[in-house]
Amino acid sequence: MRQVRSKxxxxxxxxxxxxxxxxxxxxxxxxxxVTVSDQFTIDVPPYLTEMNxxxxxACLQYGNDLESHYLVVIRETHQKLERMGIQMGIDExxxxxxxxxxxSIANAEIDPLTEGIEEVNGMEAKxxxxxxxxHEGLPIFYHIMYLRSEKAFYSVTTWCTxxxxxxxxxxxxxxxxxxxxx
Length: 182
Fold this sequence. Notes:
This protein is an alpha+beta fold. It has two domains: 1-26; 31-181, Mog1/PsbP, alpha/beta/alpha sandwich (Protein Transport Mog1p, Chain A). The protein has helices spanning 2-23, 78-83, 90-104, 165-176; strands spanning 32-36, 40-44, 49-50, 58-64, 69-77, 106-112, 118-120, 123-133, 139-148, 152-161, 180-181.
């Protein structure tokens, strides 16, 4: 009986060590790649699912109400912008878009995620972290990355409640840098 119990304890110990090691692996190993209309891919955590976040400009809308974590990607082609008489670089696009974000976030505190323009997956990129309040006064935390490729601009915005910041931030940092144009 002691030998059987000892074998069970040994097996349980081995399994606990295995699962402990697996849980310490990088967050990116837990992300799934989503392909959007043969235009781009982006990595998302498995608890986010496709949902309607009522953003008509978005080509990707994912979220999880229980986790209070959301993701939206907007893609604007250079051709579309040129038809409207708009030509700009990543600096101008990021400045314009961050002003829109700032106008919709009360008490917005904006900090850069990038040092000037960086390259992310072959695209020019500028990123920001924002803390503020939504229209209901709920404290919210955002990661936003603006990217410019040869074909389009991308706005990758992910947010969560301030109370979930520590849990969601590693995923947020991975997501905004994971977009790859196809």
